[in-house]
Amino acid sequence: MAAVKRIALVGAGNMGANHARVISQSDQATLAVLVDPRESVGRDMAERLGAAWAPELPDLHDIDAVVVAAATEAHYGLALEVLNQDKPLLIEKPVADDLLHTREILELADTRDVPIMCGLLERYNPAVLTARAALGDPLHVTATRHSPYAPRIRTGVAWDLLVHDVDLAINLIGSAPASVDSRLGFFHPNSVPGAEDVAETLLGFEDGAVARISASRVGQHKIRSLSIYELDRLIEVDLLRRDVTIYRHVSEDSIGDGPSYRQQTIIEIPEVVTSVEPLTAQFARFNDVIDGRASAAAERATILPSHEVVDHVISQRVTA
Fold it and tell me: Is residue 76 domain-shared with residue 191, that is, in the same domain?
Protein backbone atom coordinates (compact mmCIF):
# COMPACT_ATOMS: atom_id res chain seq x y z
CA MET A 1 0.00 0.00 0.00
CA ALA A 2 1.29 3.47 -0.91
CA ALA A 3 2.45 5.72 1.92
CA VAL A 4 0.02 8.33 3.23
CA LYS A 5 0.66 11.57 1.39
CA ARG A 6 1.16 14.92 3.06
CA ILE A 7 -1.03 17.45 1.22
CA ALA A 8 -0.81 21.24 1.17
CA LEU A 9 -4.13 22.94 0.41
CA VAL A 10 -4.23 26.55 -0.81
CA GLY A 11 -7.54 28.30 -0.19
CA ALA A 12 -10.03 28.23 2.69
CA GLY A 13 -13.12 29.44 0.82
CA ASN A 14 -16.17 27.35 -0.05
CA MET A 15 -14.33 25.03 -2.43
CA GLY A 16 -11.26 24.93 -0.24
CA ALA A 17 -13.36 23.84 2.72
CA ASN A 18 -14.75 20.95 0.68
CA HIS A 19 -11.27 19.89 -0.43
CA ALA A 20 -10.08 20.08 3.18
CA ARG A 21 -12.89 17.77 4.28
CA VAL A 22 -12.19 15.23 1.53
CA ILE A 23 -8.43 15.21 2.16
CA SER A 24 -8.95 14.81 5.90
CA GLN A 25 -11.31 11.86 5.36
CA SER A 26 -8.98 10.08 2.93
CA ASP A 27 -7.03 7.00 4.00
CA GLN A 28 -4.43 7.87 1.35
CA ALA A 29 -3.56 11.37 2.54
CA THR A 30 -3.40 13.79 5.41
CA LEU A 31 -3.91 17.54 5.36
CA ALA A 32 -0.48 18.80 6.46
CA VAL A 33 -0.86 22.54 5.89
CA LEU A 34 -3.67 24.87 4.94
CA VAL A 35 -2.58 28.06 3.18
CA ASP A 36 -4.74 31.19 3.27
CA PRO A 37 -3.67 34.81 3.80
CA ARG A 38 -6.69 35.41 6.08
CA GLU A 39 -5.47 34.18 9.45
CA SER A 40 -8.90 34.37 11.07
CA VAL A 41 -10.28 31.97 8.47
CA GLY A 42 -7.28 29.83 7.63
CA ARG A 43 -5.96 29.16 11.13
CA ASP A 44 -9.41 28.28 12.45
CA MET A 45 -10.05 25.74 9.68
CA ALA A 46 -6.54 24.29 9.96
CA GLU A 47 -6.81 23.80 13.71
CA ARG A 48 -10.18 22.09 13.39
CA LEU A 49 -8.67 19.61 10.94
CA GLY A 50 -5.37 19.06 12.75
CA ALA A 51 -3.27 20.87 10.14
CA ALA A 52 -0.77 23.69 10.30
CA TRP A 53 -1.76 27.12 8.95
CA ALA A 54 0.43 29.30 6.74
CA PRO A 55 -0.33 32.70 5.17
CA GLU A 56 1.52 31.76 1.96
CA LEU A 57 2.81 28.63 0.29
CA PRO A 58 5.76 27.30 2.32
CA ASP A 59 8.75 25.36 1.06
CA LEU A 60 7.39 22.02 -0.12
CA HIS A 61 10.31 19.73 0.78
CA ASP A 62 8.14 17.69 3.18
CA ILE A 63 4.92 17.94 1.12
CA ASP A 64 3.91 15.22 -1.35
CA ALA A 65 1.26 17.08 -3.38
CA VAL A 66 -0.63 20.37 -3.51
CA VAL A 67 -4.31 21.22 -4.06
CA VAL A 68 -5.04 24.79 -5.18
CA ALA A 69 -8.51 26.22 -4.55
CA ALA A 70 -7.48 29.88 -4.43
CA ALA A 71 -8.78 32.80 -6.48
CA THR A 72 -8.17 32.29 -10.21
CA GLU A 73 -5.83 35.26 -10.49
CA ALA A 74 -3.46 33.54 -8.03
CA HIS A 75 -3.35 30.23 -9.93
CA TYR A 76 -0.53 31.07 -12.33
CA GLY A 77 2.08 32.00 -9.72
CA LEU A 78 1.07 29.17 -7.39
CA ALA A 79 1.14 26.56 -10.15
CA LEU A 80 4.62 27.57 -11.31
CA GLU A 81 5.91 27.51 -7.73
CA VAL A 82 4.49 24.01 -7.13
CA LEU A 83 5.58 22.49 -10.44
CA ASN A 84 9.08 23.94 -10.23
CA GLN A 85 9.45 21.96 -7.00
CA ASP A 86 8.24 18.84 -8.86
CA LYS A 87 5.16 18.41 -6.69
CA PRO A 88 1.93 16.94 -8.12
CA LEU A 89 -0.82 19.54 -8.46
CA LEU A 90 -4.62 19.43 -8.40
CA ILE A 91 -5.86 22.89 -9.37
CA GLU A 92 -9.40 24.20 -9.60
CA LYS A 93 -10.72 25.40 -12.96
CA PRO A 94 -9.67 27.38 -14.81
CA VAL A 95 -6.02 26.40 -14.58
CA ALA A 96 -5.01 30.06 -15.02
CA ASP A 97 -6.49 33.47 -15.76
CA ASP A 98 -5.72 33.32 -19.48
CA LEU A 99 -5.00 30.68 -22.10
CA LEU A 100 -1.34 31.59 -22.54
CA HIS A 101 -0.72 31.08 -18.82
CA THR A 102 -2.66 27.81 -18.89
CA ARG A 103 -0.53 26.53 -21.76
CA GLU A 104 2.66 27.59 -19.96
CA ILE A 105 1.61 25.69 -16.85
CA LEU A 106 0.71 22.53 -18.76
CA GLU A 107 3.92 22.69 -20.81
CA LEU A 108 5.97 23.03 -17.61
CA ALA A 109 4.19 20.02 -16.10
CA ASP A 110 4.84 18.08 -19.30
CA THR A 111 8.51 19.08 -19.49
CA ARG A 112 9.13 18.14 -15.86
CA ASP A 113 6.76 15.13 -16.09
CA VAL A 114 4.86 16.25 -12.99
CA PRO A 115 1.25 15.07 -12.49
CA ILE A 116 -1.35 17.82 -12.84
CA MET A 117 -5.13 17.62 -12.70
CA CYS A 118 -7.84 20.25 -13.14
CA GLY A 119 -10.98 20.33 -11.01
CA LEU A 120 -13.47 19.48 -13.77
CA LEU A 121 -15.69 17.81 -11.24
CA GLU A 122 -18.58 16.61 -13.41
CA ARG A 123 -16.30 13.94 -14.86
CA TYR A 124 -16.80 12.12 -11.56
CA ASN A 125 -20.57 12.56 -11.25
CA PRO A 126 -21.96 9.03 -10.69
CA ALA A 127 -24.54 9.58 -13.45
CA VAL A 128 -21.81 10.60 -15.93
CA LEU A 129 -19.73 7.54 -15.02
CA THR A 130 -22.83 5.37 -15.52
CA ALA A 131 -23.57 6.95 -18.91
CA ARG A 132 -19.96 6.48 -20.04
CA ALA A 133 -20.13 2.80 -19.13
CA ALA A 134 -23.20 2.41 -21.37
CA LEU A 135 -21.87 4.58 -24.19
CA GLY A 136 -21.60 3.32 -27.76
CA ASP A 137 -21.04 5.76 -30.62
CA PRO A 138 -22.26 9.26 -29.69
CA LEU A 139 -23.05 11.59 -32.56
CA HIS A 140 -25.00 14.42 -30.89
CA VAL A 141 -24.67 15.78 -27.34
CA THR A 142 -26.82 18.47 -25.76
CA ALA A 143 -26.27 19.94 -22.31
CA THR A 144 -28.15 22.53 -20.28
CA ARG A 145 -26.69 24.13 -17.14
CA HIS A 146 -28.94 26.93 -15.86
CA SER A 147 -29.01 28.52 -12.42
CA PRO A 148 -30.56 31.43 -10.54
CA TYR A 149 -28.35 34.49 -10.27
CA ALA A 150 -25.65 34.24 -7.59
CA PRO A 151 -24.08 37.64 -6.71
CA ARG A 152 -20.96 36.00 -5.24
CA ILE A 153 -19.94 34.66 -8.68
CA ARG A 154 -18.03 37.55 -10.25
CA THR A 155 -16.91 35.84 -13.46
CA GLY A 156 -19.24 35.09 -16.35
CA VAL A 157 -20.99 31.78 -16.95
CA ALA A 158 -18.37 30.56 -19.43
CA TRP A 159 -15.84 29.69 -16.71
CA ASP A 160 -18.37 29.12 -13.94
CA LEU A 161 -20.81 26.83 -15.77
CA LEU A 162 -20.14 26.24 -19.46
CA VAL A 163 -16.68 24.71 -19.06
CA HIS A 164 -18.06 21.63 -17.28
CA ASP A 165 -20.32 20.60 -20.14
CA VAL A 166 -17.77 21.52 -22.80
CA ASP A 167 -15.38 19.17 -21.04
CA LEU A 168 -18.02 16.42 -20.85
CA ALA A 169 -18.92 16.76 -24.54
CA ILE A 170 -15.25 16.56 -25.59
CA ASN A 171 -14.63 13.50 -23.44
CA LEU A 172 -17.85 11.74 -24.50
CA ILE A 173 -17.25 12.30 -28.21
CA GLY A 174 -13.56 11.57 -27.82
CA SER A 175 -11.84 14.48 -29.55
CA ALA A 176 -11.40 18.23 -29.45
CA PRO A 177 -13.90 20.16 -31.58
CA ALA A 178 -12.95 21.38 -35.04
CA SER A 179 -15.28 24.40 -34.83
CA VAL A 180 -16.77 26.57 -32.09
CA ASP A 181 -19.65 28.99 -32.49
CA SER A 182 -21.06 30.92 -29.54
CA ARG A 183 -23.47 33.71 -28.66
CA LEU A 184 -23.33 35.58 -25.37
CA GLY A 185 -26.01 37.48 -23.49
CA PHE A 186 -25.40 40.31 -21.00
CA PHE A 187 -28.52 41.00 -18.96
CA HIS A 188 -28.16 41.29 -15.19
CA PRO A 189 -27.58 44.82 -13.80
CA ASN A 190 -25.43 43.45 -10.97
CA SER A 191 -23.00 41.56 -13.20
CA VAL A 192 -19.46 42.83 -13.62
CA PRO A 193 -19.15 44.73 -16.92
CA GLY A 194 -18.19 42.26 -19.65
CA ALA A 195 -19.23 39.19 -17.65
CA GLU A 196 -21.74 37.17 -19.64
CA ASP A 197 -24.99 35.89 -18.09
CA VAL A 198 -25.85 33.49 -20.93
CA ALA A 199 -23.62 31.48 -23.27
CA GLU A 200 -25.04 29.36 -26.07
CA THR A 201 -22.33 27.30 -27.73
CA LEU A 202 -22.25 24.92 -30.70
CA LEU A 203 -19.32 22.56 -31.20
CA GLY A 204 -18.57 20.72 -34.43
CA PHE A 205 -16.26 17.70 -34.57
CA GLU A 206 -14.24 16.30 -37.47
CA ASP A 207 -16.15 13.02 -37.48
CA GLY A 208 -19.42 14.94 -37.95
CA ALA A 209 -20.57 14.84 -34.33
CA VAL A 210 -22.26 17.96 -32.93
CA ALA A 211 -22.66 19.30 -29.39
CA ARG A 212 -24.97 22.11 -28.24
CA ILE A 213 -24.28 23.54 -24.79
CA SER A 214 -26.36 26.13 -22.95
CA ALA A 215 -25.24 27.96 -19.80
CA SER A 216 -27.25 30.63 -18.00
CA ARG A 217 -27.38 32.37 -14.63
CA VAL A 218 -30.71 34.09 -15.22
CA GLY A 219 -32.73 30.92 -14.66
CA GLN A 220 -35.19 30.55 -11.81
CA HIS A 221 -34.13 27.06 -10.76
CA LYS A 222 -31.16 24.77 -11.28
CA ILE A 223 -31.08 22.63 -14.41
CA ARG A 224 -28.23 20.20 -15.00
CA SER A 225 -29.16 17.95 -17.91
CA LEU A 226 -27.15 16.02 -20.47
CA SER A 227 -28.49 14.11 -23.48
CA ILE A 228 -26.31 11.80 -25.57
CA TYR A 229 -27.73 10.71 -28.90
CA GLU A 230 -26.57 7.61 -30.76
CA LEU A 231 -28.04 6.33 -34.01
CA ASP A 232 -30.43 3.98 -32.22
CA ARG A 233 -30.38 5.14 -28.58
CA LEU A 234 -30.81 8.23 -26.42
CA ILE A 235 -29.02 8.39 -23.06
CA GLU A 236 -30.50 11.05 -20.78
CA VAL A 237 -28.53 12.13 -17.71
CA ASP A 238 -29.84 14.19 -14.80
CA LEU A 239 -26.69 15.53 -13.14
CA LEU A 240 -28.55 16.83 -10.10
CA ARG A 241 -30.54 13.69 -9.34
CA ARG A 242 -27.61 11.61 -10.57
CA ASP A 243 -29.69 9.20 -12.59
CA VAL A 244 -29.61 7.84 -16.15
CA THR A 245 -32.41 6.76 -18.51
CA ILE A 246 -31.81 5.05 -21.85
CA TYR A 247 -34.44 5.13 -24.63
CA ARG A 248 -34.59 2.99 -27.77
CA HIS A 249 -37.42 3.52 -30.25
CA VAL A 250 -38.47 0.17 -31.77
CA SER A 251 -41.63 0.72 -33.83
CA GLU A 252 -44.27 3.14 -35.05
CA ASP A 253 -47.55 1.86 -36.50
CA SER A 254 -50.66 3.58 -37.76
CA ILE A 255 -53.90 2.66 -35.97
CA GLY A 256 -56.92 2.13 -38.17
CA ASP A 257 -57.62 4.53 -41.02
CA GLY A 258 -57.22 7.76 -39.02
CA PRO A 259 -54.20 9.92 -38.14
CA SER A 260 -53.43 7.96 -34.97
CA TYR A 261 -50.10 6.28 -34.37
CA ARG A 262 -48.76 3.83 -31.85
CA GLN A 263 -45.12 4.12 -30.89
CA GLN A 264 -43.10 1.63 -28.89
CA THR A 265 -39.99 2.68 -27.02
CA ILE A 266 -37.88 0.50 -24.77
CA ILE A 267 -36.83 2.33 -21.61
CA GLU A 268 -33.87 1.16 -19.55
CA ILE A 269 -32.88 2.61 -16.18
CA PRO A 270 -29.39 1.34 -15.38
CA GLU A 271 -28.15 1.09 -11.83
CA VAL A 272 -25.73 3.89 -11.03
CA VAL A 273 -22.23 2.44 -11.00
CA THR A 274 -21.07 4.28 -7.86
CA SER A 275 -22.38 6.39 -5.01
CA VAL A 276 -19.03 8.03 -4.26
CA GLU A 277 -19.13 11.83 -3.94
CA PRO A 278 -17.53 13.42 -7.05
CA LEU A 279 -14.93 15.37 -5.06
CA THR A 280 -13.89 12.19 -3.24
CA ALA A 281 -13.69 10.30 -6.55
CA GLN A 282 -11.61 13.11 -8.05
CA PHE A 283 -9.16 13.03 -5.16
CA ALA A 284 -8.89 9.23 -5.48
CA ARG A 285 -8.05 9.74 -9.17
CA PHE A 286 -5.39 12.29 -8.17
CA ASN A 287 -3.82 9.67 -5.92
CA ASP A 288 -3.94 7.11 -8.74
CA VAL A 289 -2.12 9.52 -11.05
CA ILE A 290 0.50 10.34 -8.41
CA ASP A 291 1.10 6.64 -7.68
CA GLY A 292 1.26 5.65 -11.36
CA ARG A 293 -1.95 3.62 -11.43
CA ALA A 294 -3.22 6.10 -14.04
CA SER A 295 -1.20 7.86 -16.73
CA ALA A 296 -0.07 11.35 -15.75
CA ALA A 297 0.58 12.23 -19.40
CA ALA A 298 -2.90 11.10 -20.49
CA GLU A 299 -4.48 13.09 -17.66
CA ARG A 300 -2.56 16.25 -18.61
CA ALA A 301 -3.71 15.90 -22.20
CA THR A 302 -7.39 16.09 -21.19
CA ILE A 303 -7.15 19.58 -19.66
CA LEU A 304 -6.37 21.98 -22.51
CA PRO A 305 -9.21 21.27 -25.02
CA SER A 306 -12.02 22.62 -22.81
CA HIS A 307 -9.91 25.65 -21.88
CA GLU A 308 -9.32 26.42 -25.55
CA VAL A 309 -13.06 26.27 -26.27
CA VAL A 310 -13.97 28.55 -23.37
CA ASP A 311 -11.23 30.99 -24.32
CA HIS A 312 -12.78 31.17 -27.79
CA VAL A 313 -16.23 31.70 -26.26
CA ILE A 314 -15.17 34.60 -24.05
CA SER A 315 -13.36 36.22 -26.97
CA GLN A 316 -16.87 37.00 -28.21
CA ARG A 317 -17.23 39.49 -25.33
CA VAL A 318 -15.46 42.17 -27.32
CA THR A 319 -17.88 41.84 -30.25
CA ALA A 320 -21.10 41.23 -28.30
Answer: no
